[in-house]
Prior knowledge:
Blueprint: H1 2-27, E1 31-39, E2 42-50, E3 53-63, H2 76-93, E4 100-109, E5 113-122
Parallel strand pairs: 3-4
Antiparallel strand pairs: 1-2, 2-3, 4-5
Amino acid sequence: MLNRLRAQFAARRGRAGEDAAEKLLRGIGWRILERNWRRGRYELDLVCEDGDELVFVEVRTRAEGGLVSPAESVTPAKQRSLIRAARAYLAARQAWERGCRFDVVCVTVGAGIRTEHIRHAFELGQTLDRGHASRQRR
């Protein structure tokens, strides 16, 4: 029962973080194309357009004073997973020619909700798919 309550609390906190991130990005004029896009085991929190560039946004929500900051929680393993998810998205949308990048929105929940937007949070270390390399701007 306790584990179920913790999972429900974490899900509510995660939704609140995604709501805050979406509000932040809409506020700077971005168009939100997808929220919680899924394909198999892959998920993208937000897929947005910043001008003509496609932006895959990972939202990391943590409690204030936690052991690991939201930014630190985007480990190399998580980055690889996001790259695979982006590959699946680009294939599903036939969008290989679109410029793209990976951003992170860090949400800290305490007395209030604080957000931090990290543009170009990490770079592609590999092509997105055999024979397809979406243009990533630096």
